[in-house]
Design a protein that fits this description.
The first copy, chain A, has about 260 residues and is α/β, with parallel strands linked by helices. Helices cover about 45% and strands about 15% of the residues of chain A.
Chain lengths: ~260, ~260
């Protein structure tokens, strides 16, 4: 199977590397930025171009791994291919392809990618969607060769998963930041919190989060909650979050 | 060093076991509930009592590991000891001892303890406070024999750390729960989120959370944010959290 990678960022790099390691042939890398195209092509031992009209017409698969904003414009200027064209975006509908290609779909690796951190791809879920069953079958074989957690889902489900990730990843990291700031204000080191953060994430690898909720809110411990609210009086950002989430946890526990 | 443990819950059990493994002698376990006292005493190969007047008068250290609410009443009915008396509560001031004992303090292991999960005590921070420098020195030696992360701090700092833990642990787990519910509503499995949750916690073991914030809010990606808000219209609890935290992250990023 010949694969063309369109894009040169984190997702393009990681997927390209995974496919190469799994024995697939990357036939070309395209990027708007020719230096980036060259760098990734060199890593993937293949050719590169920054010219949309020079894209390999005979590849089996075209992977669009550019920023969400850029997908629509890129699709508009791409020629027509026989191979399957997929994008890799969680929050972009399959309808963005607008039946432009014969075979198209979505190949969404569901993880937070950061430069400089190695990720075990095998455990990263890959969510698939395709315009027809034959394309879905091909994507399924490909996905299963690099991941143990491949699921087929529609665009609405994929978007819900993306929102869930905003809660469990982006918002969670914001809570870590709020904790960090509070510690700084009391001359305490963030390092003190690290084992706890680790253990909290570790717990829900085995259990459902609802089963392992702890803290003053779930106990409805008014004495402690009020003393926390008092200490947070000068921290308005913290206070707003403390009040909202405490109310929600209390109201959740009273439903049981 | 002879140690008396007052209490029989998670903290009493974990600390007792740690001290025993580190070569200290647990001279007695007291608990209001005689069956619990007996069970823990058997584990710690020592004697037990449920009678407050039978507590060993000659121990070097008395560790109060009862629920926060029960500390004050227990202190009130305890006799006067020569040994150091400590409580193990994050949110209780050292002033609860009210100078009743000659030597007293706080020995707070900072972690979320759950029955049935093993915890590596060496990496768990222990926060110390004492009524005098001699007691502090003794507690310091003891704490360092079971943990690599021992800090001295005052009651206000300890309470701030406890609040920080509410954000980074209890509230974070609530966000996991919200994510879980959203997935359920779209017939998706929570298992899809687990690698991401792990990676999010893992990242801040090396970096500061402020440095690794990702997602639509930090990019101020209005298109994605609005499409999320629209999809959450029927999820009022999620919507309130999404709006508040997104606003805070955007406002944070604009300060840079």
């Amino acid at each position: 199977m010949n694969i063309v990678i369109l894009g040169s960022g984190n997702v393009a790099t990681l997927l390209g590397t995974c496919f190469l390691n799994a024995g697939y042939n990357i036939s070309q890398v395209w990027s708007r930025n020719v230096q980036h195209a060259e760098a990734l092509a060199s890593l993937l031992r293949t050719q590169f171009t920054d010219d949309i009209h020079s894209i390999d017409q005979s590849a089996d698969l075209y992977i669009i791994a550019v920023s969400d904003d850029a997908i629509e414009d890129l699709v508009a200027i791409l020629g027509s291919f026989k191979g399957i064209v997929v994008h890799t975006s969680g929050s972009t509908s399959i309808e963005i392809f607008n039946n432009k290609f014969e075979n198209y779909g979505v190949f969404y690796p569901f993880q937070t990618f950061s430069k400089g951190r190695d990720v075990d791809f095998k455990i990263i879920p890959i969510l698939l969607e395709a315009s027809n069953s034959k394309s879905l079958e091909i994507l399924n074989v490909l996905a299963n060769s690099i991941s143990n957690r491949v699921r087929v889902c529609n665009s609405e489900q994929r978007k819900a998963l993306h929102i869930a990730a905003v809660f469990a990843c982006n918002f969670t990291n914001h809570l870590y930041t709020l904790a960090q700031k509070l510690l700084e204000d009391y001359q305490l080191d963030f390092d003190l919190l690290r084992p706890l953060i680790s253990e909290t994430a570790q717990k829900v690898q085995e259990f459902m989060p609802k089963e392992v909720q702890t803290g003053p809110a779930i106990r409805n411990d008014e004495k402690i909650i009020n003393s926390h609210l008092k200490q947070l009086e000068t921290h308005q950002t913290h206070l707003a979050v403390y009040k909202l989430l405490t109310e929600q946890i209390i109201s959740e526990s009273s439903k049981k």
